[in-house]
Amino acid sequence: MGTKIFVSYKYADNDVAFLDEYNYGLYSTARNYVDYLQNKKFSGDDLNKAESDDEDLSRFKNDTIKSKLRDKIWDSSITLVLISPKMKDYGKPEEDQWIPWEVAYSLRTETRNSQRSLPNGMIAIVLPDQSGVMSV
């Protein structure tokens, strides 16, 4: 049986290195790397808990988004965090950003209907910037 993997990343961060076959315009985004992982690296029986590219949650209220993300993270066993150059929005408080919340929720033990989820394993991948440099 495969692994249930949730991917946390900044969807529109376009300060990442060009990813040839997954580029859909003049530049690549962190989302292109998710497409690459989904198509090339997850095994056939892994269950991808990341949203699909056409699944836009931005039109929903924050409480609805949190509910949908909780459902995806709750039964996953690994959270893969893609660290990209502009993943942190310095103009917003941390509590108003999704990635810190997704990481924190992934590390919790939660109970639903007498079933318990354990904290997820965490894997962080640093994505290279447009010049190919990987920095944190």
Describe this structure in words.
This protein has 136 residues and is of the alpha/beta class. It is built from 3 helices and 6 strands, in the order βαβαβαβββ. It has helices spanning 30-41, 62-74, 98-106; strands spanning 4-8, 47-48, 78-83, 110-112, 115-117, 121-126. The strands form 2 sheets. The chain has a 4-stranded parallel beta sheet with strand order 2-1-3-6, sandwiched between helices. Strands 4-5 form a two-stranded antiparallel ribbon. A hairpin with a 2-residue loop joins strand 4 (110-112) and strand 5 (115-117). The N and C termini lie far apart (34 Å).
Could you name the key traits of this structure?
136 residues; alpha/beta; two-stranded antiparallel ribbon; 6 strands
Strand order of the largest sheet: 2-1-3-6
- Taking Cα atoms only, what radius of gyration do you get, to the nearest Å? 15 Å
Estimated structural class: alpha/beta
Total strands: 6
**Globular, elongated, flat, extended or rod-shaped: what is the shape?**
globular
Show unreliable segments.
Answer: none
- Note the gap between the termini: 34 Å
Number of distinct helices: 3
Task: Tell me about the largest β-sheet.
Answer: 4 strands, parallel
Secondary-structure element sequence? Answer: EHEHEHEEE
Name the beta content range: 15-25%
What do the pLDDT scores average to?
Answer: 85
Report the helical percentage: 25-40%
